[in-house]
Amino acid sequence: MKGKVLTSWSLIWLVVTVLFVAGGALNLLQRAGGELPPTDGVLWVQRADGIYAERVLPGFAASRQGI
Fold it and tell me: Which of 4, 17, 42, 60 is the most exposed place for a label (fewest CB within 10 A)?
């Protein structure tokens, strides 16, 4: 006698896999179509004695203001 090809556990794994693939595809679509968060163009670093600008990217608001 032939056993079941699609058992309840395999059906559960199939549904979980489809959900993960769909979630990953939606994540990629959102990242590809979304805009980047606003930035001032400064890489800020926190040290024991305060917060410092480590690097200022050219062309952004911070470099235009002379930081």
Answer: 4
User: Per-residue pLDDT for the chain (67 aa), expressed as one digit of tens each?
Assistant: 566 777 888 899 999 999 999 999 999 998 888 777 778 889 999 999 999 999 998 988 888 888 7
Are the C-beta atoms of residues 57 and 63 closer than 8 Å to each other? Answer: yes
Task: Please state the domain extents for the chain.
Answer: 1-34, 37-67
pTM over 0.85: no
Nearest alpha-carbon partner for 65 in 36, 40, 38, 39: 40
